[in-house]
Amino acid sequence: GPKVLQIPSHQIIDMGQMVTLNCDPVSNHLYFYWYKQILGQQMEFLVNFYNGKVMEKSKLFKDQFSVERPDGSYFTLKIQPTALEDSAVYFCASSPDWGAYEQYFGPGTRLTVL
Amino acid sequence: GQQVQQSPTSLVLQEGENAELQCNFSTSLNSMQWFYQRPGGSLISVFYNPSGTKQSGRLTSTTVIKERRSSLHISSSQITDSGTYLCAMEREQGTGSKLSFGKGAKLTVSP
After folding, report:
1. Which end of chain B is more exposed for a tag (fewer CB within 10 A), N or C?
2. Is the minimum CB–CB distance between A27 and chain B shorter than 8 Å?
3. Residue A51, helix vs strand vs coil
4. How far is the C-alpha of B45 from the C-alpha of A25, rounded, in Å?
5. Is some CB atom of chain B closer than 8 A to the CB atom of A89?
6. Distance from CA of residue B12 to its chain's centroid?
7. Which residues on chain B are in Cβ contact (under 8 Å) with A35?
8. Which tens digits make up the pLDDT trace of B29-73?
């Protein structure tokens, strides 16, 4: 089936550094998402993105977070600067459009902030 | 409050037994999905099931939108079915869509 790819699979960085998580969504999909899952906890919605804009973000999407997808390349989540509480697995997802469509998830990027 | 309630939170079975996992939603929903999460963390979509009954091999999902509930039935469980099963609902927002997840049901199948 359709696949979402995420790069890297693991990232270890020092607190205060910047990190960029990359997502290659399903081709022809128009809606993109980031979710966050802290180890052993619930999966939480961070942000969705459509037509070059953030459509909705949760309280977890702090000011230090930003997303973009320049010219159909990777859909990225940037955290600058990182904090210890940003350690989590970040999942990217995409869907053909918004509404009642299946979301396809990537394998996740495990981010460890030291 | 929690929009998605999963039950049971954990389940231990012997190989060959059946499992029934439930998901209840506190608000109206457009659709829902069931996921399987491996102990290592990777997420696998099991069913996209906005309504009705879907079957794939030993897995069957039934969603009753009007009653805001969905179930996942696993027949003749196998050791490899062990892991966490997540349900998630999609509630259409004015500015877009997002999934709200339950806390998961941890399934352990032993020989």
Report:
1. N
2. no
3. coil
4. 15
5. yes
6. 16
7. 99, 101
8. 888 999 999 877 888 999 999 899 999 999 999 999 899 999 999
Q: Which phi and psi (to 5°) does residue B66 adopt?
A: -60, -30
pLDDT, residue B14, reads: 97
- Token pair for residue B62? 């039934």
Token reading at A98: 């918004």
Please report where in the chains the tokens 């869509």 appear, as a residue. Answer: B97
Q: pLDDT (tens digit, 9 = 90+) per residue, B88-111?
A: 998 766 666 889 999 999 999 999
Residue with tokens 């919605």: A45
What is the chain A residue with the closest CA to B31?
A100
Of B65, B107, B54, the C-alpha closest to B89 is: B65
A58, A100, A108: residue with CB nearest B41: A108
CB-count burial class (<10 Å; 0-12, 13-18, 19+) for B34: buried
Q: Between chains, do A42 and B102 touch, taking CB under 8 Å as contact?
A: yes
Q: How far is CA A26 from CA A3, A8, A46, in A?
A: 6, 17, 19
